[in-house]
């Protein structure tokens, strides 16, 4: 009966033991999987952080290069003319030629970049009046001055209103009569006069002002504006007319260069650490070998009977001792003390 009960108890215990072992193995597997997943997540976060940092640095370098290398593409400024009206002749309303002084400095910085060619044009909005039609051709003179008052460049260009016959003018007036009456359109012409086709500023005497003079005392002008356009060539042409492709190429090249530097520095650090480890291991082994060789003869007795020289082995008979060497020495000393006591007695 007892055997049967033991057998039944063993049979009942075996499934529980197997289930417990399976649960332990499952727990270990889950723990290992979670630790590996956590480790991979930490590694991925570190890699993502480094990649994001390198991309940000690459974009910052490209933006800095673009801001410092690319000049301002366009510049415009209104032109306000001044003239004298204190003349004695009643036939002429203007006693001097209209002149205007335009500053080429914005926010304490020069508008024109050294070495960059520019195109300067003057846009005139003139009424289609009989005085302007009778004016015919007129000259526009432009002079650029440096801060010291030195003349940097000068040009003179001629212009004239577009010809329109009386019939064409009458038909246009009848066609656009509602717009003229409501003020949506005006009878005017817009002239664009090229002052400089390829102007390059002098780096030793940069231009700070431009003086525009219309050499006619009968000209009538609604408004006037000065436009400066940069002629880009080479890399600046690509950066200005293809900004997205240039940005992708620039950021990618900076990212590759920074990645190469980072990987090279990391590999160099690894190669510097490994030889130091090898040297430390080598010195430890040498120290251990030196200690083994430098054991003195007096300490041989402390190591026990197993430590003997080859000459002693040949001369003496082998003795087999059981136990530690220090315990055997204690026994020998105790036996020698008993023999001395018996002899003394």
TrEMBL record:
Compartments where located: Endoplasmic reticulum membrane
Annotated keywords: Endoplasmic reticulum, Lipid metabolism, Membrane, Transmembrane, Transmembrane helix
Q: Write out the GO cellular component annotations.
A: endoplasmic reticulum membrane
Regarding the membrane, this protein is recorded as: Multi-pass membrane protein
> Membrane: present as a keyword of the record?
yes
Taxonomically, the superkingdom here is Eukaryota
Q: What is this protein called?
A: Seipin
Q: Which gene encodes it?
A: LOC116319963
């Amino acid at each position: 009966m007892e055997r049967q009960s033991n057998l039944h108890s063993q049979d009942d215990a075996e499934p529980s033991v197997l289930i417990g072992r399976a649960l332990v193995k499952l727990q270990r597997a889950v723990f290992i999987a979670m630790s590996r997943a956590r480790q991979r997540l930490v590694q991925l976060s570190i890699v993502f952080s480094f990649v994001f940092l390198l991309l940000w640095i690459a974009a910052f370098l490209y933006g800095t290069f673009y801001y410092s290398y690319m000049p301002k593409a366009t510049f415009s400024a209104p032109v306000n003319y001044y003239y004298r009206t204190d003349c004695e002749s009643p036939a002429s309303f203007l006693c001097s030629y209209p002149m205007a002084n335009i500053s080429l400095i914005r926010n304490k910085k020069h508008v024109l970049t050294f070495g960059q060619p520019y195109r300067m044009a003057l846009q005139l909005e003139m009424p289609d009046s009989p005085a302007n039609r009778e004016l015919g051709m007129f000259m526009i003179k432009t002079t650029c001055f440096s801060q010291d008052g030195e003349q940097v460049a000068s040009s003179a260009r001629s212009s004239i209103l577009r010809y329109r016959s009386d019939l064409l003018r009458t038909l246009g007036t009848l066609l656009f009569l509602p717009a003229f009456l409501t003020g949506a359109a005006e009878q005017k012409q817009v002239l664009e006069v090229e002052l400089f086709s390829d102007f390059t500023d002098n780096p030793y005497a940069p231009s700070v002002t431009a003086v525009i003079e219309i050499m006619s005392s009968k000209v009538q002008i609604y408004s006037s504006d000065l436009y400066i356009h940069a002629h880009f060539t080479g890399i600046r042409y690509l950066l200005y007319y293809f900004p997205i492709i240039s940005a992708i190429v620039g950021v990618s090249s900076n990212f590759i260069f920074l990645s190469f530097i980072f990987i090279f520095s990391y590999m160099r650090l690894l190669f510097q650490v490994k030889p130091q480890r090898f040297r430390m291991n080598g010195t430890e082994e040498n120290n251990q070998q030196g200690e083994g060789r430098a054991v003195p003869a007096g300490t041989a007795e402390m190591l026990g009977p197993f430590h003997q020289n080859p000459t002693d082995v040949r001369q003496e008979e082998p003795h087999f001792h059981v136990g530690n060497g220090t315990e055997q020495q204690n026994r020998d000393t105790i036996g020698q003390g008993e023999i001395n006591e018996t002899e003394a007695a």
